[in-house]
Design goal:
The protein is an alpha/beta fold and about 425 residues long. The protein has 13 helices and eleven strands. It has one domain: Alpha-Beta Complex (Amidase signature (AS) enzymes), CATH 3.90.1300.
């Protein structure tokens, strides 16, 4: 499928086969390391593997060799996982639609005929998992880059709490907000990968249900601008959670999602420009023009502006969690819209209206498909919890997923 979908940057076929033979021998001789032993996985191509190329979606870096292996990659290998290859990404992980001018934009598998947004920046991870080419993948999430491709590609993805998983060996965008996270076709598979990433069982109860949980939903003023199909799917999801025994109540955030989205961007552009200033300042460098434009504001953000944004973030977090004290979780659509034709994606905007705030607030969140539209495109639900409450987010997502029922595979599925 990859000649059609273009999800992979590199595939390590022979090494993966050799690792699979070793895993088979270990399992057959009662040396099974755990649930992740023998599972093939992919890495977003900003995650370093010693001796392999890590381009970070940048044409100028296409031959760049890694000299170290990222801790998250090593943990999956140590758990018996089989690295199948690296998947494509938006350049330096700076974009939510999933596009890449020079290294290629993966084709969303939900539409054979129209090239649609795969979601970014972990675009290849989303497409490779959704199409069945690999069971699971690592993405990274700075403002939605695990959840957006999960939403647009109709799979599950977990944005972990900042600092929970190490970012050493991951090409940085924002050292404050970057978080690696698992992507898979089911919440249960995400949970297995999450256990391997943290180094052991987390104790998540995927059969625990949601009875008695208090779940916040969007107030009327936050519902504006959501595409009608996505909004209808969101309302059906709320009804389903209520039927499962959750108490649904409107929650008005102290600071609107749109304003938190803008506040997040100040931090990301300042830190992103710090990390990639050399190439962004080189007018001859072959950099995606849209990515260069996103980094450009970082030039003019002063140290005072940057420190002020960090302090504002701490104040906003405190106010938000004081307001959310009566809730167990907050649910929103993951994106305001369904996957768009690439020709309609506005590169000066972002689908990250509801996802960036979760990074800004240092929360965790699971994106799970909420259904399939009449256009045969996936709709999505984001289940956000306080930082460190990944198990609760996964528990709610699993209960919702089970009640929702099975969904069809995308038209382009292996």
């Amino acid at each position: 499928l990859d000649p059609t979908l273009g999800a992979w940057q590199e595939v390590y076929a022979e090494e993966a086969r050799a690792a699979a033979r070793i895993a088979d021998a270990e399992v057959s001789s009662s040396r099974r390391k755990g649930p992740f032993h023998g599972v093939p996985f992919a890495l977003k191509d900003i995650v370093e593997v010693e001796g392999k190329r890590t381009a970070a979606g940048c044409f100028e870096w296409k031959d760049r060799q890694s000299t170290m292996t990222a801790e998250v990659a090593q943990r999956l290998i140590d758990a018996g996982g089989i690295l199948l290859g690296k998947t494509k990404t938006v350049e330096f992980a700076m974009g939510g639609w999933g596009t890449n001018q020079r290294m290629g934009t993966p084709h969303n598998p939900w539409d054979k005929n129209v090239a649609r947004t795969p979601g970014g920046s972990s675009s290849g991870s989303g497409v490779s998992v959704a199409s069945g080419m690999v069971p699971c993948a690592i993405g990274t999430d700075t403002g939605g880059s695990v959840r957006l491709p999960a939403a647009f590609c109709g799979i599950a993805g977990l944005k972990t709490t900042e600092g929970l998983l190490p970012t050493s060996g991951i090409v940085p965008l924002s050292h404050t907000l970057d978080t690696p996270g698992p992507m898979a076709r089911s919440v249960a598979d995400v949970a297995v990968m999450f256990d391997a990433l943290v180094g052991g069982p987390t104790g998540v109860d995927l059969n625990g249900g949601v009875h008695g949980m208090r779940v916040g939903c969007l107030p009327d003023d936050e519902r504006s601008g959501i595409e009608l199909t996505q909004l209808a799917a969101y309302d059906r999801s709320l009804e389903l959670l209520a039927e499962l025994g959750a108490e649904i109540m409107q929650f008005k955030p102290p600071k609107p999602f749109e304003e938190m989205k803008v506040s997040t961007f100040v931090i990301v552009t300042a830190e992103g420009y710090f990390h990639h200033q050399k190439i962004m300042d080189d007018p001859e460098a072959l950099v995606d023009e849209h990515v260069r434009a996103r980094f450009a504001p970082g030039v003019s953000i002063s140290s005072s502006d940057y420190v002020g944004a960090l302090l504002e973030r701490e104040n906003d977090r405190q106010k938000f969690f004081e307001s959310m004290a009566h809730l167990d979780a907050l649910v929103t659509p993951t994106t305001p819209m369904l996957p768009l034709p690439l020709s309609e994606a506005d590169e000066e905007s972002t689908p990250a209206r509801f996802t960036r705030a979760i990074n800004y607030l240092s929360m965790c969140a699971t994106s799970v498909p909420s259904g399939i539209s009449n256009e045969n495109l996936p709709t999505s639900l984001q289940i956000a919890c306080r930082g460190g409450d990944e198990n609760m987010s996964l528990q709610i997502a699993a209960a919702f997923e089970a009640a929702r029922g099975d969904l069809p595979n995308p038209p382009l599925y292996n």
